[in-house]
Design a protein that fits this description.
190 residues, alpha+beta, 9-stranded antiparallel sheet
Length: 190
């Protein structure tokens, strides 16, 4: 069962577009655009990404999620790279770098029956990634992103879910392919 603490959502006034399983999209006015818009990366190196991720873990005391060392992977595309970190046997992080060696996308892969309680590690990792990619966000803002994706809705399908939201030029997407595989990804919005 997917759940976060039950703080009431607060409006952050940021550019928001959300899309759920029905495929409909809604928008809120853009009050404070950040420099991510029309970018091709998150404007951080792999090491900066790791440090920001660990900074969020420390700031919000999210025990058990620290990244010790990102492992570089060979990439089939010229001038790009990939990195990976395995948190445990059910949760792993994979990222890709552009030709400037800046992070351009990250994916969090969860395995195991999504209808079973996870102790919150999956949603905590998702919230931490949201905080990592948005310096100005608080934990409540990260929860708002997760809510906008639709993950906290009472009628979430535990077998075939696909929810998306766009904020500050980044697309956040969570999908469940079957009962045993889920993916959370952050990419530069197109």
């Amino acid at each position: 069962m997917l759940a976060l603490s039950s703080n009431p959502p607060q409006s952050s006034g940021k550019d928001q577009t959300e899309k759920h399983e029905s495929g409909t999209a809604t928008s809120e006015e853009d009050h404070a655009p950040l420099t991510q818009t029309n970018a091709s990366s998150f404007h951080m190196t792999m090491e900066e990404f790791k440090n920001k991720f660990n900074g969020a873990v420390g700031k919000y005391r999210l025990n058990g999620l620290s990244i010790t060392r990102l492992n570089m992977k060979d990439s089939s595309e010229q001038d790009t790279g990939a990195f990976e970190y395995v948190f445990n046997d059910k949760l792993r992080l994979v990222g890709t770098l552009n030709s400037d060696q800046k992070v351009q996308e990250v994916r969090l892969y969860g395995t195991g029956d999504v209808s079973e309680p996870t102790g919150g590690i999956l949603l905590t990792a998702i919230a931490t990634l949201v905080l990592t990619t948005n310096n100005e966000y608080t934990y409540n803002d990260a929860q708002d992103v997760i809510q906008d994706i639709g993950l906290l809705d009472r009628d979430v399908s535990q077998s075939e879910f696909d929810g998306t939201t766009v904020r500050n030029g980044l697309e956040y997407r969570f999908s469940i392919q079957d009962h045993d595989h889920s993916t959370f990804e952050i990419t530069v919005a197109k």
